[in-house]
Every structure is written in structure tokens, then in C-alpha cells.
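Re: weekly structure request thread

Next one in the queue (327 aa):
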Amino acid sequence: MSVNRNENIIKVVRGDNGIGPVRYEFPGLLSLAGGGGGGASGAPFYGGAGGGGSTVVSASLSITPQITYVTFVGAGGEGGAWTGGTAGNGGIDGTESSWEAYTNNYDTPVTMSVEGGQAGLWAASTPLNGGNSGTGSVIGPTTENYPGFTGGITKIGTIGGQPATATGGGAGSFENGEDGEANFQKAGDGGDGVLITSAIIGGAQLAGGGGGGSGADTANTGGSGNDGGGDGGDNQGAAGGNATLLSAGGGGGGATDTIAGDGGSGANGFAHLRFVGKIGTQLGEFDITVTNATVAYDAGANTTDILFGIGVGTFRYTAPYPYVPKP
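Done, posted below.
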């Protein structure tokens, strides 16, 4: 299996197959992402940084019969809560997602995994940068690692003798988060996500967007969350927005000189499988069972989409294998 952070780049899970008995594999496109990271809360004079969306990785794989594939889909991280003090609280990272498969020779396990988006954080009463988008890896006959994108930089200083910040946006699954502006007038936007296509989510949807950084008392504007990431709270102490699309990060909480808002929560991760054909037990159909998943068939395109919910899910394709035709 090979994966790439940009789902438009696709490689194939294949073993070395010589000429032998009739085989029943068929191709499918798997897209996988962890939960989005939560945004940090604000604190008086200081906004909170945005949470990162999870990296989204995709791979073309050969679906083989008589194998139970197991997936785990991670949940989004909660936003940080302001508790009334002079410092803020960081959000919670999104949870990792994974897919367990095999090579075509059925003798080598292959694990595809993706970290959740990282949260916007605080340390020592100082707001830190926006959350990163996490990393991905494939562990099998060889190991491949894929870096994530980086959260935007938070600018910290003073204006007119008062503290000022312009917090960074969370990284998306397609690009880095935007930095806060040096003049402290605007917090950073979240990074962009990548396109996922599925009948279950209403067609095409951008997934894994970053959450926006937030405004503070001396920063006029909170950052926008892109592609489902939560918007950063404004400079009236508003809470950061919760993520609305798959695997996106939450927005940072805004602040005045006396109050602050909580950070927004990240969205849940996903595992999505698409293939040409229909599930069923009739001629030309695939005898497939799944757990913890939603299934949709598009008759016009003759494609099946399977979207797994958070937690453990399974996929099993049943066919007579090995099968040697009569002479």
C-alpha cells in the first residue's frame, strides 16, 4: 500500500502474482483521516490558536476475498476551556485512524494509519502556534512515512503598552495554517482541506480543513476556518467555532482585556471506501458485509460508497477462493 497526503496521487496495493488459479480481487479507493484538533481557548488580551485538521491520505487497494479488514476511526478533539484565570487552555488532539489490510499473497499485514490533527496549545501562560495536521504512515513489507502540514505562527507583542496577539490558524490536510499578521490586526486562517467524493456526504466535500486563529482585544479580526474548520472567535470574547466537515479543526477562542471564549471542537475522522459495482449476492455483485458503516449505491455511476463511523468497523468480502475452474 502506498499513500500520499494529496488524495489525487494514488498508488496501488499489489503483491507479485504469477499465473495461477482464477482470483477474485477488485480495486477500491480508500480515504482515511483522523479526528480534527480542538482550538485553544483565549485568555485576557490573548486569543487562542486554531486546531489542525487531520491529514487525509488515500490509496488504491486490491480488495481480496476471505479477509476481514478492520478499521478504527478516531474522534475529534475538544476545544480548550477558559477557566477564568489569566491563562488559556489548549485543546485536545484528534484521535488517530487506521486500516488493517494484507498484501495480495495474504502473508504480510499492512497497516495504514493517520494521526489526528493537533490542537492549538498554550504553554507557560503563552499562546502557541496553530495545530499541525498530523502525519501518516504505511507499515508492511516496507515502511513509508508522510509528514503533515504546519500550523500558523502566533505573533505576540504590545500595542500602546497593552499585550497583543495575532494567533495562527491550524494546518489543513492540503496546506499550512496562515500566520497571524505582524501588526496584530488579524489572526491567521486555517489551512485548506482536500476533496473527498461520496454519495453519503452529498457528493464532493473538502475534508481536513484547519481552524482559524482568534482575535484578541487589540486584534480586530478572528481568522476563518477553511473547508469545515471552525472560525476563530472575535475580539469580544466569543468562543471559537466547532468544526463542521469531516476531520476539520476547531477555531481558537477570542478575548477582550477581561474575558475570553472557549476553543471550538474538532470534527470526527473517517474511513471511506469507494469501488465500482454493487453489494449483493446476485450474478455480478459483491458479497460484502460491513459493521459500523453507512453504505450507499449510485446506480447511474455503478459505484458503492462505504463510510465508517468512529470506533471499530469491519469489512469482509466473501468469494470462493482459491477456485480452480474445471477443465
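Confidence is low (pLDDT under 50) at residues 1-20, 323-327. Residues 110 and 200 are 27 Å apart (CA to CA).
Next request, please.
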